[in-house]
Each structure stands twice: as C-alpha cells, then as structure tokens.
Amino acid sequence: MAMTSTNGSSSVAPGPGNQLQRKFYTEDVCTLKADPSMVGIVERTFYEVESHEPLEDSLIVSHVPVPERELMDFLKSGVPAKGCVFVTWSEPTQGSSLVHEDDIELLDRSLEIGCLVKRHPNDTASGAVISTSIRYTLQPAAFRLIDHETGEYGALQFTEKPLGQLGPGDRVEPALLRDVPAEELIAGCDEFYEGSYIIYRQKIGLIQQVDRSVVLMLPSQAVVTPLNPYGLDFPLALDSKPIVSLPNRHEPHNSDSIGLSRPDLSVQADSLYPGQFVRTTLKNLRRGHWTSGAFSENEAAEAHVLATPPLDIHVEWICANIFSVGTPSFGPTSEVLRAGRLQGQAVVYDSGKLPAGHSYEQAIRPGSNHSVGDRVRFRDPAGAVVKYPGFDWIPKDQTFDYDLNIFKIVSVKTEVTVQWQDLSITKESSLSLHKFLGLENEVWPGCLVSLRDEIQTLPNPNKHSTEPLAFTFDPNRNSTVLRPKKIGVVQKVNSRERIASVRWYRDPNVELLHNGHVLRPSSLLGELSDEITDVSMYELTTHPGLVKARGEMVLLVPEKIHHSILPPKSSFPSSTAAGPCLLSYLFPLSFTQANIYLDHIKHVLVEAEWFKRSINIDQTPFPPRHSVRRDDFSLHDPIDWIGHIISLDLDGTITVRLGALQSCRDVQVPLEKILMVLDEDATDDIGPSLLDEESFELFNASHRNFIQTIEYEGGTRLGGDSDDDLWLTEDDDIVSDSDSMPDLIEIDMSGLAEPPQVSDSTSDSGHYDDMPVTLSARLAASCPPSFTILDMPPPQNHHFLRRKSSDANTQRLRRIGKEYQILESSLPQGIFARTWESRIDLLRVVIIGPQGTPYEHAPFVIDFYFDDHFPSAPPASYFHSWTNSMGRINPNMYEDGKICLSILGTWPPKNPDENWNPTKSTVLQILVSIMGLVLVRDPFYNEAGFEAFASEGDSRVESTQYTEKAFVMTRGFIKHALQNPVPGFEDVLAWHYLPGPVENDSQFTRPQLLKKAISEATAMICHCNASCDNELGSERGAASPFVAQVASSGRAGCQNKECKDEKIRIDKGDLRLGTWVDSEKFQSFFWRHWGCVTPKIIANLIEISEETSDGSRDYTLLDGYDDLSSEHQSKVREALEQGHVADSEWRGDQELNRPGKTGFRKRATKTKGPADNDDADEKKADKAKSAKSKAENPKAKKSEIEKSKVGNQKTEKSNAKKRAHSNKNDDEPVDDANSPSAKKPRKESTGKKTASNPPDSSAKAKKARTGLAEVEPTEDKPRRDRKKAKSDTVENTKEKTKRSRK
C-alpha cells in the first residue's frame, strides 16, 4: 500500500515489512510523559554520529528508569543505545538524562531556513525550507501582582522560588505570553552573547566568550555584587531521583556513582540569567560590593540573580572590509575588548530582523536559534506591552536600574514553508517532516550546475606562483583549472526519475581553481538564456565554488566604495590562486592572512567590467595623513558588505539580507559579487586544504592483528547479517603472519639513490615515451599474470615517481621482496599488480570492480610507494580518480587520491588493533580490504557513522541513489581506461575488455567486460525509457514489471523462498523471470527460475499481455520476450495459455501448480547415506594430503592440484547423481520423467554447478540451450586449480582479516 504526498512523491506506508520511522533527531524538543512539566532538547541519538563524543562532566539524572547495562555503556562510550536518546532538560537543576524513546513525547522539531527535509524517510523527493514561522510561549523572569480593586502593582517577585519556601498549591505563577513570533525577540539579556557575529571598526569577528559580573538580590531586598561571580551554585531539588553523575567527577563511571538526591547537593552555575535562584558562601557576600543594604551574618547565603552585566568580550576576528578606507589589514586574530568600549560602537549581527515595509506574511523569515530554556527579550518592549496584555513591563527604577524584562522560553511551535524539488511550495508543521542529510551532487531549484561532459580541464600555468596563501597549499591541489562550458540554474527536479530541468546561461566565462573549490575572481556567468532542457542528474555536477545555500553568512562587494582604494594599476589581473570560496577551505587562517587573500581578490575585481558598471565611486576627498578624522573616516559607512542568504532565485541571482544595517533590507546580487562564504565549518580547528599529506602523519602506526572477514565480489562482509550470501565467491588470500612468508629473492637496488628525471607536463593518461598506446586484442593471448616485475622504466604518471628512491636497507628490501612474492602467488581474481626493476619501491595495482556492486567491470588504478619508514608504517597510497572533479565514487576514495582505511593510517579505527602491524600486516591485506570493504554493493553506508543506518535499513533511498550515481560515474572509468590505457596493464585491459581471436575454446574465453557493461547499461536505459513512457500515458512500449530472459551468468540467486533458503543460483543459460521491484527503498529486478514462477505471477503476465481483436495475445508487451529463442518463447506462450508453467518445468508440488493456487517448491529431505560419508571422508583426506604436500614441498603444489582436480570432479559428479536420485525419491514418488531433480538437480550451497546424465542426445541438446548441462570454467584451468588448492589458506585469512574502513 502506498500513500502519495501533495508534492507527488510516493512513500511506503508503515507495515510489518517496512522500517519504522525514526522518532527523534538532535535538537528536537520533547517532554517527559511521566512529568509533562519537564521539557528538554535531544542532544544525542544512536543514529547521528556527529553527536557521538565523549561525555563531559555534567549532571546526569535518571528521571525514568533505564536498564543499568545500557546506562553504563552510554557513560563509557557517549553513544546512546538503539531506541534511546540523551536529553538535556531546560532547567539546569534537572540535568540531563538517558531515556527510552517511548518515555518521551515530541513537541517540536527545530528547522531553519535552508534545512533539507522529507515528509517520509522513504520519499525520493526532498525539499528545502525557504521560510519559517516560529512562535514561543514565554515565562517572565520576574513579575508583580496587581490589585484589581486599586489597580496598583504589588512588590517585585521572582518566578523561580527558593527551595522549600512554598508548596505546590501555594505557589503564585505569572501570566504566560503565548504565540509570540520569533522575529519580535532578541537572544540573551543584552546585546552580547556567545556565537554571534560582531562588526566593529569595519571588522567582522565571532564572539567566543563573554565574561560577566553578577548582581544578586537577597530576600531582604539588599543588592550585592559578590566577590567571585563563579562561586555560585544551583541547589538541586530532585526529590528521590537517582543521580548518575555530578560535574567535576573525573573518576570512571560505575554503578557506585548512582545515588539518591540529597537536599544539600548543588551544582556550579555555569550560565547565569536574571531571575535564577542561587546559593553561595557568606564570605563571598561579605567581601562583595553592596549596592543596597548591608551584610548580615544571620541572613542565608542565597539570592536571586538580578543582572549579569558584561565585562569583557572575547572576539576571534575573521577579516576586515577590504573596500573600506583606512581599515588596517594587519592585527591580532584574538582580542579581548571591554564591553564598555564596544557598547554603542559595535554592531551585533541580527539574522532575525525583518526588512521594513514587508508584512509579516510576505517577508522571508529565516528562523531562530532560540529553543526551550533560552532567555530572550523583546525588540520593541513598548510595542509588546500594547500587543500582549499579560506583559507587565517592570521599570528600571524598581530594579536598581537593571532591565529585568527577561523571559524564558517554555514551549515552541514551528511551521515551515518548503519548496520541494518539483517546485511546489507547501506549508508544513515541523512535526510532519524528517531531516534529510542530502547526497553529494543532489540538486534543488535555484542551484547552479554544470554539464559533466562540457567541462574542460586545463593546466594551471601559475600553479607555482607566489600568490597569497600559495605556500599553504600543496601545488598539486591547484595544478589544473576547470572551465565549465555549460552552466545553468536548476528550475525543478524529478527526483524519482533523477531528471532536472535546467535553464542555461548563454555564454558563461567561468573558471574554477583548486579542484572546483575556488571561483576565479575574473569569472562571469553572464546572461541567462530562455533555453530550458531536461537533463539526467547523472550528467550534472556541482562545485563548491559555485554552490551557495540559504542561511549562509557571506561577504559582499559594497554598493559604494571610495575612489582612494582603487589601485592605479592592477598588479594581479588574472589571479589563479585566490578567489571566492568557503572560508573553511582556507582554515586555519589568521586575520591578517584573510585580509591579504581578500585584498588579492579585490585587485582583480576592480578591473572587471561588471564592477565598473555596477559599483558607485565616492569622490569625497580623503583626509590628510595626520588628520584626526583619517582613522574614523569610514567608521560611519553603511555595513552593507555582510549579510546572510535568504533565497536562491530561479533567475540565477541570490537574495541576501543585510542584517547589520540599522534599517534591514534585502538585496539581489549576482554570484560574482560574493567574496566569501562564512560557513559554520570555518570555526573548526583545522581545514583539509592545509594538510600536507606527505609530511603530516595523521595516525601513527601501531601493532595490530588484522582480523577481518572479506568477501571479494559480493561487496559485503562474510558472516554478517546481510542477505548477500548469494554473491559470495571463492577467491583466495594468504596468512598474513610474517613468519609464514616465503624466502626472499634477492633484489638489486644499487644506484637508485636519485629518482629519474620526470617532465612536469605529466597527465593521468601518460604513457611510456609519451606515445599513445592503442589497445589490441593481440596484446593478450591468455589471461595475463596477476603480478609482474617489468623491465622498463615506471610510467611518468605514477604519483610517487618524483619521490626519491628508498635507501638500500637490506631488511626493508627483504620485506618488499616478501610482499611481492605474496602478491605473485596469492592475488585474488580481479587484482593485478606491477612493479619495475629500476624502481622496486614503486607499485601500481589495477582492481577490476567486483561483481554485484556498482563498481563491477570498471578498472581502478592505485599507486603505492614503499618509503624509508616501511614496514614500520604502511606504504603511501594514491587512488587515480577519473571523475574530473565531479565528486567521489565512494565515501572512502577521495578525488585527491586519498583512501580512507585504518590499515593505511588514514582513518582512526575504533579498535587500535586495526592499524598497520609491521610484523603481521601485508600489502595483500590492503588490496583485499579495498576490494572487499570499500568497493562494496552499498557504498553509501561506508560513510563514517552510517553503519547504524545499514543495520536498520534506514536511508535506503539515499543508498540506492548513491549506488546509481557510483555506477554511472564508474562507467566513465571504463571509457577512460580504454582511451588512455594504463601503462604496464595494456594486456590486462585488452584481455578483460576486448573480444579475442579465439572464441570457442573455453580455456581462453575472454571476459569481454566492455560488451557486458554496454549490454547491461543499454538494458537499464531501455527499461527506464519504457517506464517513463508508461508514466506519460503511452499505451504501447511501456515497461512491464516483469522481464523474461536467459541468464547470462550463474551469479544471480533465485528469489523464490525455497531456492533462496537453499542459496540456489540460476544457472547460465536458464530461462528466468525478473520481477521489477520499484519501491521507495530501492529499484531492482528479483530473479527466479522459470520453474519457480507461480500461477499467481502467470496471472499477472496474462493481464500484461493484452488480448488483441482476433482473440490472440500480444506477447511482445512482455519485456524481453522478443529477445528469447523460439523454444523459450514457446514455453512462455504455453504457460500463459495454461495459466501455469509446464509441470515438467515446475519445481514445486504439482497440485499447487494450477490457476488460482499460490504454488511453492517442496523442500527435499536431505539424508546422508554411507556412500555420502565415504565421499566426505575421501574429500577430507584428499584435502589434508594436499595441504601437507604443499607445506612440505611448495614447488610440487601445482602438480598436486592437477591430481586432486580429477578426483574432485569425479566426486562432484557422483554426489550430483546421488542427490538427484535422493531428490527424486523424496520429492517425486512416481513420475520419473517429470521429476524436477531429473531435469535440474539442486545446487549445493557452495554454488558449484552439477548435472545429471541426459537420457539421449536430444535431451542433452535441450539442456545445453537451457543451461542445465555442466558449464566449463571461462578462466584458465591452472589458475582456477591453484586457487582451489589454497582454499584452506583463504579460510585462514578470512578469520584473520577484520574490517577497517572509514
């Protein structure tokens, strides 16, 4: 059953087979069901890895019972158990709690402008919040009772009462202000609060900390400023609720730390607001400053907070207004300023302010960071008194000249306006929406995109120039310039079909630096045309230098500049290093460095034609050098150079709200006018752009036991909970213990102290002698060896060729030799390695993508370098990404060549044993890890922290879309490798991708992966096109939900339950039926034997094959029917005429193979007779004998394998006959001719093919056409036998190998 949302996206209704919707996200507002007065904010969930940090010392209270084991595990790891969340309550004295999701209720979901949302997690369509409507319920910090007879106000009272002063029935509560819009409120008790942007003297910075004094009012109405403002505590009133943790407890958490609350317990007051009740010491009061009253020894040391005036403001300066006159570009990055110096001079940026002249409903409201428990005040107190009758404005003369009109948020209600990908706009309650993380290169209306095939990659001639900050970047990061020739603005998106409507620019002149992160300042988008086309989202790409998002703070070119800042002649007319980008890309960056960078951009912009046309020039004379007015000349200039984005318009312009202006207003600016994006990540301690990968070692190598379970072609771990067992193969590995490594063959590396001279003009497609190489089928008469030492120079495009040749250390050379011997004897199928006699410290590997993954058939090239630190540290690695800066193909494989694996030292493992171990880890383990743990079936879940989604089946839509994108992108890898053959692997590529001269000899049959890739892609395109025609109302040519075809390989497993339980595959050549499963979780064919097609499915096929006017049926409406042989077409027609498949083909009980029946295949009772025991003993003995022979004499391994092969084949045939005979006796008691076991014996779970002897030649021919006869291996026999003989070694490795991905 499906339900359709108003924007046209379908979702799966909750049911027994569907995943449960997530109940809570971080920042959700919730209440405790057992005590609705307790309201809090969700801080941590099981799913959101960003919240999984070690716990800080804090007050943790068990307000509701939680199993002690889950609580103890949480205290140690900081990760809530599945089904639990960590909540921080609005009152500091209530602390935080680990609670079960069933014990709390969702009140509100915090959403701001720019947030990505879905109505249901399984929807394909998503939307962006373009406006918000947030309303609060406020509780005043203090109030006065009014005498209704006289109309006079009584004495001042605080809302928060002292402990034990009044019972619940005697407490007097003030009136609440309800339904207050967020735009009427300002955060904090004064203008300075942490986390806000501040503009002072034409500089912008971020307030990191505010040091405050505290003013207390005692019960006697005396007012005092205590000597130590940090010596105040909050008394706890938790009744008998268990306290799990108190602040400043540094000992390990254990069961003994749980105790009952006591009246004398208190916690230090970290954040103080007016109206809070606190305790201190008499000494702290005695030595304080008394504004009113006097100290008394008889008075309790407890009071209410009257005010928290700011003293010092700690600011981290970001940059200055580079277009301002007289603003210094040099200065400290961190500064502590007195609050009195800033008051009246500095401006705190106000993102909640609305522009004048707009009605409340018309204005775009970006939202608010306020939530329950926060303190706020009104922007216009006088207007609020009129609007809200319950607002009792307390004059300052009654509070010792302090403003006590402060309110606490006690509840919040959020409604949002969402623009969906199809351009529809709806208003939604935040409770009805789910947060969406978004996908790489996912687009929404208003996004700037470029066409993948229309991007030119040009060398950057100035990559080594000494431009600003060039010294902080690796030159390779800016070695090329991207020039997208086709740029457009997304108008709308059909997310289900992955199609975007794009309006294109006429003639954009745009260049991108630093792999697309930086926009060259001389770029110009130009004029938008009327051309709008529908484009596959896989043909589009986005670049960080072009992408902007709602809610981001941006630096702008001012509307008016002074003539004195214009340089007489530009020194940098064509900058290729500095340009508009995300500030986080440059971090860490000092205030001075940021100004130098921006000033460099300014020198380029002032020469641009658009700048000269659109910017006003102020011709006012500049004061002379020694004038007192010189330094303050620009201080009164409008702050129109800083704003936040509120809209991405469909005409390509960007609407920015200038929240620092006294009279806020919105402006529409082109992309070229944005100088910098002050993104949130800019506050991180370090940015990726400044890491020197060669000299910076992120994680030290340590001893480890590399224990993982690897599956090579199926893309998932063996022995896991996945149902992907049908994809398992029997590839090999070896024991990684260095003690078992074979002896070293001597390698001479003398004379290699210096690397060969290499030209700077190398490219990723370079070849030997710089000559193009054309692949030819003659390059490989048989499958090339997995490992080879080449006697030619290494290719110029080897990433580490310029590194010096490692020192001739004997121990290290012996280890490299051992590594190569391991690779020579034990590389799994699909991995090929090459090294060079002249540079034995360099290695290049080509991995053919594993079957059953989006990477299948595609080649992946990885370079390795064994430096002087090897084997103490793992070899350096570099992945050749051929995506042309269009995104990653895998979360673990970056475009800059980085591969995230703990064994490579590029990702911190949860278990230190997963690091590289100098004595036990091998290069083979690295390659097997990449093939089995990185190039997997569902790469989306390789992202850090997404394992939780994989275990729950969550984010399946995003996973499917990521897999589709990876599949499409890696098809380009095939094209690239064939057009630019990898030096040293020409024979490998020719063998795997090109047809060979010998086609009939099974021993030399080539994989022909190019043909397979084209065939599979064409089939997908045809089915997609037919499906689209069906949605458009086409009566003919629509795609059927079923497709009949002959199995092209023996890898697919039958999805019929009985076959699936036995892990039976569909043999190559068998007729099979694919059922198209098109859910919001995934889209795929589920295959089953033709003999497993039930009468119910046949009835569906009958409906699809419409009856023509002459009474016959149009079987061509069935997908794949025209491609079948006449014999298979006859089977399909016969089944549709009878209403069931032929009894001779049926694999279940005959009486259930009739129209109206559901049908199923009867399970065979497996019995093990004496003959089977003999065969098992014989195989076990042969295996032990073979293993012993290999251990004693490795050189005789091959001959022993050849001998064992013959015996194994005989045993397999014998067992097949016995199983067929047993199945016949158990399943089909009478009819021998119609016995399914006679027609097609059941496969063993190992997936090896067997066949019974045919009764005559005609039957044998029929079996050959349907794939029932035994099929010879397509690869060369000696290699197959060699792998088979090492199966015991494979099992060892599978037990020793442990996953170490990001």
Automatic annotation (TrEMBL):
Keyword Transferase (UniProt): yes
Annotated transmembrane regions: none
Main location per the UniProt record: nucleus
Annotated region (Disordered), positions in chain: 1128-1302
N-terminal signal peptide: none
Keywords recorded for this protein, A-Z: Metal-binding, Nucleus, Transferase, Ubl conjugation pathway, Zinc, Zinc-finger
Ranges annotated as biased composition (Basic and acidic residues): 1128-1154, 1177-1215, 1286-1295
A single GO cellular-component term on record: nucleus
Domain PARP-type: 1042-1140
Record localization: Nucleus
Pfam assignment, any one: tSH3-B_UBE2O
Entries under InterPro entries matching the protein: UBC (IPR000608), UBE2O-like_SH3-B (IPR057733), UBE2O-like_tSH3-B (IPR057735), UBQ-conjugating_enzyme/RWD (IPR016135), Znf_PARP (IPR001510), Znf_PARP_sf (IPR036957)
Any GO MF annotation of the entry: zinc ion binding
Limits of the UBC core domain: 811-975
Keyword RNA-binding part of the UniProt annotation: no
Protein name stated in the entry: UBC core domain-containing protein
Native organism taxonomy: Eukaryota, Fungi, Dikarya, Ascomycota, Pezizomycotina
